[in-house]
Amino acid sequence: MPASAREATHAGSWYSASELQLREQLSSNLSRVHPIPELEYDPPVLDSKAIIAPHAGYSYSGPTAAWAYASIPVNKIKRVFLLGPSHHAYIPGVALSNFKVYETPVGDINLDLKTIEELKSTGIFSTMKSSVDEDEHSLEMHLPYIRHVFKNKKDLSLVPILVGHPKSETLDELSKVLAKYWKDEDTFFIISSDFCHWGSRFSCTPYYPHAPPPPNPVPPVPHETLPASFGPPDLIKKFTSSHNNPRVPIWKSIQYMDHEGMDLLRHPAEEGAAEKWEAYLDRTKNTICGRNPITVLLHLIQHIYLTKPDSAKPVFTFVRYEQSSKCFDGKDSSVSYVSGVLRVPH
């Protein structure tokens, strides 16, 4: 039998345990979101089907996440699939929750037990231990936002999926299973991921000493003129002071590397999109912690849309990019946060 309720274990540390304070913070973050005409972003985005949003402490990533959450067409959504990476437990494939309810300071969220049982019956999924479920912040950090933006929909149900390290054959099987739910117009997908974790404490210090401005900058990154001889700059896998180019501080190198990844995700239904994403991760070793949930989404989109005409293929619009701090030397560290909206033409 499923356990009862998952406690909000990160409330009071990663975000406020006070309902009033948390609602005020979420409302304030969402109130700062505004249309971006050049991206045809005017939330809510009625043709959106999925978002990528970060999962750090709200003082760090909460403002960025608001740009993704503002896009959700909440009025037509009844069920949310939430896919996040496993930070603390090794999971060879994908796992489902054994709880009935997820608690948050702003209200509880019921799990879709019928759908979860259907998924379990496929044999693809394992079941998370309750301790693994409650330790994992990649799922929990989205729950207050979900409950807040869907505050008037008490019938909303959730299907949380913890993504470990599924093999290619598992990804294929998973795509076939999830396609059924993707086609439901009242179902929405949320992908939980931070982007680059840079610094020696993350064992990640790649550096582009000649990184140009990103060719497709995500707000608030400004448009800058690309060098006439623009080409992929050489990547140094481990930064040292001898590599430092004063004209390209580390944070600009990180910015360029993250934008490389976002550019590869913009057209997820194009042939080879998943392979290019995997090659990018292998080449840069970018510590995008939600890389595997994103890969699950890519395979699902490939399964559904690869053979469809271009006019019917979904496109990712990235609407916000932030870094927790700006790195200037090898002792610094930062985490990048991205909000992306997947739009499916009707």
UniProtKB/TrEMBL annotation:
CDD domains: MEMO_like (cd07361)
Cited InterPro entries: MEMO1_fam (IPR002737)
A Pfam family assignment: Memo
Homology family: Belongs to the MEMO1 family.
Protein name: Protein MEMO1
Organism for this UniProt entry: Kwoniella mangroviensis CBS 10435
